[in-house]
UniProtKB/TrEMBL annotation:
Stored CDD domains: GT4_PimA-like (cd03801)
PANTHER family xref list: BLL3647 PROTEIN, GLYCOSYLTRANSFERASE
One Pfam family named in its UniProt record: Glycos_transf_1
Upper classification of the organism: Bacteria, Pseudomonadati, Pseudomonadota, Alphaproteobacteria, Hyphomicrobiales
InterPro entries linked to this entry: Glyco_trans_1, Glyco_trans_4-like_N
SUPFAM superfamilies, per database record: UDP-Glycosyltransferase/glycogen phosphorylase
EC number per UniProt: 2.4.-.-
Sequence ranges assigned to domain Glycosyl transferase family in this UniProt record: 198-340
Signal peptide: none
Ranges for domain Glycosyltransferase subfamily 4-like N-terminal: 16-186
Name of protein: Glycosyltransferase family 4 protein
């Protein structure tokens, strides 16, 4: 990309995969000579996220600005949108990159408003699942997909993190009016080093947000069922924060697992991986979850629901895939415990993962999307990067 750009990433909640994705992009873009900033919600996240912000803040020439941004559409949106717009306008971006439904809406609306003042802002949107998780047969789903269609008129480029996400957009919203790219999430080289399992590690491990979409309740019920089937007192570690954490602790106690499931606050994923021998990703819906990539790169065997882009990571015929139900998860848990070494050998190799899901490919694909959105000449791009565009 010719010349340094002023890039602002806009998203709502600084937790989970979106936050990880943005941090990686910010680090790479700052290293490439761009001035980068973040605008996001101030009411979500905790001490762990504060530490993550502190780790990258010195790289961000445009800084980190946090302001209250509510999750659902409502009257408070007008005030939060106006506050956010004033922040973005002050940053004078060349590129507004919105992540998730709310961040994507803000970035495109703000970019359009700035264009009316004569500033040629590129407006990019990465759904990361977001509103695409809604059921197309519900009133709320139809409403959000209608909004997505209308926002398409204000979009210069769409960035999908999985082919599943791209296909879901086509089915629920329609063919994008703007060019689109498929750019997989990517990991840094040091993340492909195996993590040693702690001597006192639990049988199973859950790492993620404590909300029903991610399936902690399914994980707890599956652990109880797997214990009944094997006749063993199985143990688990659950790592993550969220407003529903107390409800899951109560569920564990009600099932007689209160002394066998240990709850931990959010922590770096590689530290969490040492706490359990077999990772379980019980999500009801996903786009392209980092936690699956991180666990496999660290050498942790896993069980995962076949939702979103997860089969694109593991392979459609992987024995690790199962349905998002407690009984199906329990069946895989029993299978994995039967011969843990053999189950581990069925996971994708780290070499194959690194070739496809490296951070270099991710940042190059996003940068190519910026160039195209800004109307720059893309003829000199590598063929591998050209292949990401226009899908």
């Amino acid at each position: 990309m010719s010349g340094g750009l002023r890039i602002v990433h806009c998203f709502r909640s600084p937790v989970g995969g979106i936050f990880r994705h943005v941090r990686d992009l910010c680090e790479a873009q700052a290293a490439a000579g761009h001035q980068v900033g973040i605008v996001c919600d101030s009411s979500t996240g905790g001490d762990f996220e504060d530490r993550l912000f502190a780790e990258i803040s010195h790289l961000l020439a445009l800084g980190v600005t946090r302001t209250p941004i509510q999750r659902h559409i409502g009257p408070g949106d007008l005030a939060s949108a106006w506050r956010s717009f004033r922040i973005v306008r002050r940053l004078r971006p060349d590129v507004l990159h919105g992540h998730g439904a709310k961040g994507g809406a803000y970035a495109r609306l703000f970019g359009t408003a700035l264009r009316l003042t004569g500033r040629p802002v590129a407006r990019l949107y990465a759904p990361h699942g977001g509103s695409l998780h809604y059921d197309a047969d519900t009133l709320s789903g139809r409403f959000f997909f209608m909004l997505e269609g209308l926002m398409g008129w204000l979009t210069d480029h769409l960035v999908f993190v999985s082919d599943y996400e791209r296909r879901t957009y086509l089915a629920k919203v329609g063919r994008p009016r703007a060019p689109a790219s498929l750019v997989y999430n990517g990991l840094r080289a040091e993340e492909f080093v195996p993590v040693r399992t702690a001597p006192e590690a639990a049988d199973f491990l859950y790492v993620g947000m404590m909300r029903d979409l991610k399936g902690p309740d399914l994980f707890i019920e599956a652990l109880a069922e797997a214990g009944r089937r094997t006749g063993r007192r199985l143990s688990a570690a659950m790592v993550g924060d969220g407003e529903d954490r107390d409800r899951y602790a109560a569920q564990a106690a009600a099932l007689g697992l209160g002394d066998r499931i240990t709850f931990h606050a959010a922590m770096p994923a590689r530290r969490a991986f040492a706490l359990g021998r077999i990772m379980v990703v019980p999500s009801r819906a996903e786009a392209m979850p980092y936690i699956v990539l991180e666990a496999l790169a660290a050498g942790r065997p896993l069980i995962a629901t076949a939702v979103g882009g997860i089969p694109e990571i593991l392979g459609a015929s992987s024995p690790a895939l199962t349905a998002p139900s407690a009984m199906a998860l329990a069946e895989k848990m029993v299978l994995a415990l039967g011969d843990e070494a053999a189950y581990g050998r069925a996971m994708p190799s780290r070499e194959a993962l690194k070739a496809r899901f490296g951070v270099e490919a991710m940042t190059a694909g996003v940068e190519a999307a910026y160039r195209l959105a800004l109307g720059e000449d893309c003829s000199t791009m590598k063929p591998s990067i050209k292949g990401m565009l226009g899908r």
